Amino acid sequence: MHLEQRINAFVKLGDFLRQFSNEVVTKHDNIEYNNLFFDGFKHQIKLAQEHNGWFTTQNLRFAFKNWANALTQNSIKTWLKPYQIETFTPKKVAIIMAGNIPLVGFHDFLSVLITGHNVLVKQSSNDKHLLPYLAKYLEHIEPSFKGKIAFTQEKLENFDAVIATGSNNTARYFEYYFKNKPSIIRNNRNSVAILTGNETDEDLQNLSEDIFRYYGLGCRSVSKLFVPNNYNFDAFFKAIYHWHPIINEAKYANNYDYNKAVYLMSEFDMLENGFLMIKEDQSYASPIATLFYEFYDDITRLKEKINAETQQIQCIVAKGFSENEVAFGATQNPELWDYADSVDSIEFLLSI
């Protein structure tokens, strides 16, 4: 199977996903194998929602839209242009996926197959309904993928390399267990925003998307703010208020109530507006419905701190802070070349 065939297959998969990315799901006649797969995927979406209460209709639509936008001829070819992807004997690459947001492991899945390797997927129990179904669609679109895609719930065996994502604890286990295999091991990371006090209302409204999308469960979700000394949070609270309906969602509200009770009983200082608490804390990983913040008094020292702790940070949301910063509101819309942990997975896959 040539690279062009693989690209075309994923482009068609993107077209299929686009049907499910809008508020009104609309079946299009020009999508290949739609009669066979459309209603089935609607059922898989329903199963995913029933199995994981964080996978709301809105968040699933958002994920499908992002992937539909990424899986275009132009985007995929721009992504792959710097690499020499030549015919070689394919290896079997195992992927251990997280399950914190819908299709969170799809980029690894795409990367393995687009480079010509075979994939062995071990999914999280929190996100097990969507990808196997999309893999079946991919096999119908491009029959050459048959035999190159496998899923397992058992112990991983007979593979040549591994890409594994997990918590800090599981990452240490992965590093030991896969020490004799070429590997990419990812652990916990969080995203931060650097505020100066000069942000516009639009900047702060966009920042709310980085904070609340996927309930803050993603590594690209902003979980911490760095703010100048004596920062006034009034403008911030006003700008994010349009997200207040989130408190009507049971799982989020339960976390909000629980964490608020813990903070109050522990007599922690915090600010809250009825659906988000902000607490001064040096940690990066904040609980659901909570945002940590830390004051700074010198931008140079803050840059030194961020550089020293870069292994804990996925994205830096800012305006004019660093060359690797992400624009306000853009953390959950990565391009294909925005690699997790800044580790180039295509380069890795071409080297094994």
Automatic annotation (TrEMBL):
Gene Ontology MF: a single term: acyl-CoA dehydrogenase activity
GO biological-process terms attached to the record: bioluminescence
Pfam family, one: LuxC
Keywords in alphabetical order: NADP
Annotated protein name in UniProt: Acyl-CoA reductase
